[in-house]
Recover the amino acids of this structure.
């Protein structure tokens, strides 16, 4: 479990805090989405939890270990993927890139981990390729594989699909769904509507404060809160909200619009809505 308690944070260049008294927790095996407008402090949260930034006030604990006081004990527990994969790449060759952070392991285990991680993201056949030959979406999948190869328990995805085309986004969404099945705990920092539906709960951040925490099963009833804070609703959520207004009550489950259409076809055929 990750616990964020009474966290305040200010950059040296700022006069005011960018985070104000944050309190939330992330349960094991859970996906949470942290959403908010640019400048709300979303990415700062990810950097604090991962230990990239040092906390000045409050505490962040990972499995009851204080991140600030015992970083060496948690650094292997958590991995982070940033928005632009090209800013994270060190080597041109994919194998070299993934093996660099595993260099303390035996070569056989390095190879085993790399093969496994690349298969997780659907990029195994590119193992010996150079990164410059890949699309941006493929590069991001390699960055996710690099994190997975370290066998973390927790993964932070900091706007992982912002720069990627629609096909690339869908590939990464598939990876996130599969990681959830494998009981990874994921924090998805995002401004993209569709990523909200991947999460078990959504935290709305505004001016450094968590204004609302919405469980997935409450999304339809509380969709108006996304509008209130200028967060675009997922198209699927809009459809489900309109259906509810017309007496068709469906949960905000993790399915696509095409899957929803098939569900509605069956319900119409059976003339049964519940």
């Amino acid at each position: 479990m990750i616990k964020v308690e009474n966290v305040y944070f200010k950059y040296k260049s700022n006069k005011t805090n960018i985070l104000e008294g944050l309190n939330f927790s992330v349960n094991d095996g859970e996906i949470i989405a942290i959403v908010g407008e640019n400048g709300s402090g979303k990415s700062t949260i990810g950097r604090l939890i991962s230990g990239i930034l040092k906390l000045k006030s409050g505490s962040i604990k990972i499995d009851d270990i204080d991140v600030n006081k015992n970083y060496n004990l948690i650094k292997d527990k958590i991995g982070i993927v940033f928005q632009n994969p090209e800013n994270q790449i060190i080597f041109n060759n994919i194998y070299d890139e993934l093996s660099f952070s595993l260099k303390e392991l035996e070569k056989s285990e390095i190879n085993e981990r790399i093969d496994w991680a690349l298969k997780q993201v659907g990029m195994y056949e590119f193992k010996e390729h150079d990164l410059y030959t890949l699309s941006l979406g493929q590069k991001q999948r390699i960055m996710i594989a690099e994190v997975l190869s370290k066998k973390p328990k927790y993964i932070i995805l900091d706007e992982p699909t912002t720069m990627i085309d629609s096909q690339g986004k869908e590939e990464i969404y598939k990876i996130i769904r599969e990681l959830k099945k494998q009981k990874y705990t994921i924090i998805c920092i995002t401004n993209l509507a569709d990523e909200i539906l991947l999460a078990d709960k959504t935290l709305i951040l505004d001016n450094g404060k968590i204004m609302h925490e919405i469980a997935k099963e409450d999304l339809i009833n509380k969709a108006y809160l996304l509008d209130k804070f200028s967060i675009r609703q997922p198209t699927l959520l809009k459809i489900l909200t309109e259906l509810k207004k017309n007496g068709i009550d469906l949960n905000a489950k993790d399915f696509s619009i095409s899957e929803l259409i098939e569900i509605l076809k069956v319900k119409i055929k059976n003339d049964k809505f519940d």
